[in-house]
């Protein structure tokens, strides 16, 4: 993939497209730059009066994970512009181990979309139930806080569209 100045599609990226971009950003990165997984313990200080994860604490976990993967993926300063599709699917009791998964699902000219989900820990070989999720629009900014084009870490060129993506206007 060669970086260029075209805008890119709002269509969700495929694994191959994200991997092609990640290869351009850092060929030897592990884990992949487009995703991040963290494991956390839900502590009593994060609980509501029902003894489960307080909603604002859960939302903060989602936002931090979105920031972390966006900053790592772009190598630039990023800020959160929007949070959407926040869904609390089940209570998360104090003492639960949770897995927070964040993944870049769209790249724009100055922004990217990150999907974050939280799953409860599960026994090996079983499907971990999803507890909460959300989508976050992260914007790359300059030193004055103004939106700036995403740039490749390996060059000063603006990141181009992954192969097969149509034009998109922010």
TrEMBL record:
<dbReference type="InterPro" id="IPR040170">
    <property type="entry name" value="Cytosol_ACT"/>
</dbReference>
<dbReference type="GO" id="GO:0052816">
    <property type="term" value="F:long-chain fatty acyl-CoA hydrolase activity"/>
</dbReference>
<feature type="region of interest" description="Disordered">
    <location>
        <begin position="146"/>
        <end position="170"/>
    </location>
</feature>
<dbReference type="GO" id="GO:0005829">
    <property type="term" value="C:cytosol"/>
</dbReference>
<dbReference type="GO" id="GO:0009062">
    <property type="term" value="P:fatty acid catabolic process"/>
</dbReference>
<comment type="similarity">
    <text>Belongs to the acyl coenzyme A hydrolase family.</text>
</comment>
<protein>
    <submittedName>
        <fullName>Thioesterase superfamily protein</fullName>
    </submittedName>
</protein>
<dbReference type="InterPro" id="IPR029069">
    <property type="entry name" value="HotDog_dom_sf"/>
</dbReference>
<feature type="domain" description="HotDog ACOT-type">
    <location>
        <begin position="32"/>
        <end position="144"/>
    </location>
</feature>
<dbReference type="InterPro" id="IPR006683">
    <property type="entry name" value="Thioestr_dom"/>
</dbReference>
<dbReference type="GO" id="GO:0006637">
    <property type="term" value="P:acyl-CoA metabolic process"/>
</dbReference>
<dbReference type="Pfam" id="PF03061">
    <property type="entry name" value="4HBT"/>
</dbReference>
<keyword id="KW-0378">Hydrolase</keyword>
<dbReference type="InterPro" id="IPR033120">
    <property type="entry name" value="HOTDOG_ACOT"/>
</dbReference>
